[in-house]
Amino acid sequence: MPFSELHQELAERAAQGLLRVRRTLTTPQSPHIEVDGKSYLAFCSNDYLGLANHPQLISALQQGAQQWGVGAGAAHLVSGHFEPHHLLEQQLAAFVGKPAALLFSTGYMANLGVVQALMGKGDTVFADKLNHASLNDAMLLSRADVKRYRHGDLAQLEKLLSETSAGRKLVITDAVFSMDGDIAPLREMLALCEQHDAWLYVDDAHGFGVLGEQGRGSLSHFDIASERIIYMATLGKAAGVSGAFVAAEQVVIDTLINHANSYVYTTATPPALSSALLQSLQLIEHGDELRAHLLRLVARLRNGLAGLPWSLMESDTAIQPLLIGDNQHALELSAALRERGIWVAAIRPPTVPQGTARLRITLSAAHTEGDVERLIEALHELAC
Questions:
Q1: Is 178 a known active-site residue?
Q2: I want to staple 220 with a disulfide (CB 3.0 to 4.6 A). Which of 81, 184, 216, 294 is the partner?
Q3: Which of the residues 45, 134, 178, 280 is marked catalytic?
Q4: CA-to-CA distance for 133 and 155, rounded, in angstroms?
């Protein structure tokens, strides 16, 4: 049996400080949780607006389950496309300013489906080197040619675009980069796409609900709109529930319905989730105070951590990475915080480049200023 090789590979990962393990929550998602029976102040959730345990969403989900049951029972294209799915797609499209939208079970499945459906042999995908793993997998699955450019390097992207003449062109990028917290220069990227007749595929998993007017996302943040933009956002982060959607021109959505395998060949999400998301969209639209509070917390954290031996990476978003460098040191610092009842995840290669292990601090509108002060004080103690 080849299990000995698997044991050896896992042992090697553990020796390098790269072994991943799961921890079990015994309370609902919030800044104050219990993990494996111990209470923690958590800074490692993507629940940016604090909606994952919001009473209005719980009520909407309960009512949705009462009316629509707990499972869709079929794929969307068979008999699994329900009225709540349809209404949610319409409202999401209108919210982000696109003609049409399509629900997917996860952001990962959305990325796989879009790139695989639109691109193929003879086409070219252009990708930022720090894109999310799902975008990397998507471009490989498409069998298109792949050209990767240095993170945020518009000059290199322009050069690669100008050197490519045949086939369709698709530039894919995170809007907010999940491990660095910085925002892609979407306005300039759109200008390059217009100049070189390319589509721009924007993964706004960490911007939707947080950035832009009324939380409408990164396109609103930059005040840009174009038929050539294909927009994806997840619904399990700021929206607090589950799933994802793609918004684009109607012809793009129709193409995905016919050719995106991760949409066509999977059971639809429970319609009750869409009932909850319809309520979530209302909370996002009227959540300016939540977003203002989140920005105040970001500013307080950045001011409070100035002068430490570890530096915060440049980020104006809820993702605030504290750069440590060494894998083992990052793990030790994360463990020391846990001993103080504070949970911050250590992120190591291959999720991030070698030598850039970090603590990925994520803030939520559900945190208080006192919560942030407690983290600041603990990190200053550990720096001594």
A1: yes
A2: 216
A3: 178
A4: 23
Q: Does 237 qualify as catalytic in the annotation?
A: yes
Within a domain: residue 305?
yes
Q: What is the model's pLDDT at position 1?
A: 62
- 241 in the same domain as 220: yes
Which residue in the list 132, 206, 221, 293 is annotated as catalytic?
206
pLDDT tens for each residue of 199-240:
999 999 999 999 999 999 999 999 999 999 999 999 999 999
If asked whether residues 139 and 211 sit together in one domain, one would say: yes
Residue 268 lies in a domain: yes
Residue 61 and residue 28 share a domain: no
Residue whose entry in the numeric block shows the structure tokens 């409202």:
91
Strand order of the β-sheet with 145-149 is 100-104, 244-248, 229-234, 199-203, 169-174, 124-128, 145-149
The rounded percent of the chain whose pLDDT value lies above 90 is: 93
- In which order are the strands placed within the sheet that holds 319-325? 311-312, 319-325, 357-362, 345-347
146 and 207 in a common domain: yes
Tally the domains of the chain.
2
Q: Is 110 in contact with 116 (CB distance < 8 Å)?
A: no
pTM higher than 0.85: yes
262 an active-site residue?
no
10 Å Cβ neighbour count for 2? 6
Q: Are residues 342 and 246 in the same domain?
A: no
- Domain containing residue 206: 55-285
Distance (Å, rounded) from C-alpha 382 to C-alpha 359? 13
The 8-class DSSP code of residue 183 comes to B
Catalytic residue among 147, 196, 237, 293: 237
In the predicted model, what is the mean pLDDT of the chain? 96
Whether 126 maps to a domain, the answer reads yes
Which residues face 169 on adjacent strands? 124
